[in-house]
Task: structure prediction
Amino acid sequence: MMHCTMDDLLALRAGEASVWARRHVEDCAVCRAELDGLYQRVAQLKALPALRPPRDRWSVVRDAVRVERVRRRRTWGGWTLAAAAALAGVLLVPQFGTSGKLYAELSQAKEQSATLEDQLQNYDVDGRVLTGRTAARVADLEDRIAVIDGDLSRQGVATAQAQDAELVKLWQQRVDLMRQLVNVRSTRARYVGL
Amino acid sequence: MTVALAVPDVLVARAQAGDEAALEALFRAFETPVYNLARRMLRNAEDAEDVLQETFLEVVKSIRDYRGEGYLWGWIRRIAATKALMRIRRDHIRATEPLGEEHGKPGMHVGANLDLERAFEHLTDTSRAVVWLHDVEGYTHEEISELMGKSVSFSKSQLARAHARLRGLLGEGEGAQA
Result:
């Protein structure tokens, strides 16, 4: 008598068996026992005890977290420096055409941005425990500042097309975001009493 | 092993923002299921430890890309399974063995009445991976074939061969099987 193969039994378990296999297993006690055995093996596999890691690997992962954080901050800082350098280059080009008023606004925004950067450094950002909402807010602000820094850098490269007012606007937006970031950090610092 | 870990959204948000305490909490929540998955798929305990480490390095790197589709465990498990399968593939290439070829082991013979855990250890890495992913973790053959870069029929045949071998190693059902 022909019996079910393992393929047939697995197909029966998956509800994909042939008509022959479905009928056969109803009549054949041997194959029904095989199918039961298959179900039992799978149940036993699922019930195997969890194997636990013999050593703690968190320290290695944590070190990678810290390296990644430094890398991100360097990238962010790099954009800032690149944007500042680009701006300096732009201001030194006589034909740039920046009016006296715009020039003053630009200088002011740049100065405020640098001051806020300094303030931010005082909050020991890497060591601070943040709530989920605050952390998300900080990440959002940092991302938006990085985007503006990218825009500023591109403006610096393409000075011929750069619009004076647009440059001032970008720097002012940057100052606004930096101010929000400093507020979030300082509020958190006051809250935890540090 | 069934993993039913509910991770609060706020913890994920903090981890996505790079909060170290939140990342450690995720590591602590998932280190055992990740290690268990890797250890069941891989023969070597040290390889499984390496997969655990590689998985969380990837989690740290990519968690900002996790958009909350499905369970976090599903996302982490897929990373871990991919890392383990990469290691199996790499070891097979090094050993110049075709993927999934049964290799004999000293002292192993059919009908030895081993317990299931020991019998499972006697399967090839590929067979073990397929059995574990399909029967325990609930992956479909389509998902397994995608992870392994193989066909669906490869996954199905590996599962059938593995169960036939387990059955033999456990000394079950001597009468059946054409």
